[in-house]
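Researcher: Good morning. I'm working through a list of sequences from a screen, and I'd like to move beyond sequence-only analysis. For each chain I'm collecting a predicted structure so we can compare shapes side by side. This is the next one on the list. No need for commentary yet; just the structure.
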Amino acid sequence: MKKTTIVGLGLILGLALVATVAFAWGPGFGFGPGFRGPAYGVPPILNLTDAQSAQIRALRDSFLKEIEPLQKELYAKGQELRTLWSSPNPDQAAIAAKQKEIFNLQSSLQEKATNLGLEIRKVLTPEQLAQLPAFGTGRGFGPPKGFGPPAGFGPPVGFGPRW
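Model: Good morning. Structure tokens for this chain:
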């Protein structure tokens, strides 16, 4: 009797554990349909027409296709820089050169994002443009958070223990 109870409780506990993991999985944060609004990157209060939304969507899609190779290259350069930093005797000249390549790629991405914002502004009416200052000088147009890996390159710097 005791053995059956222990096995039964073990099975129930295992099932509960599997169910918890399955339900915790969730939908994720993919870039599927509906993730972004009709004119992603443009404040929703501007009341865009369907034509404006379509134009902005086309500009954004073109921008994303244009920067994809740059983003991949930036990621690869970041990996190379991490490898340089992790060597037993890091080469200062190689690290500086790799950082310069990364800065150039970031600058190119920023320039393309600025161009996207300016192109989107051309689609807006004067009334819509007048509403933009209400949103402050924050992100502006384009994708959020910037480009490339979320963390900086190189070893951690600072005082105290590194946990």
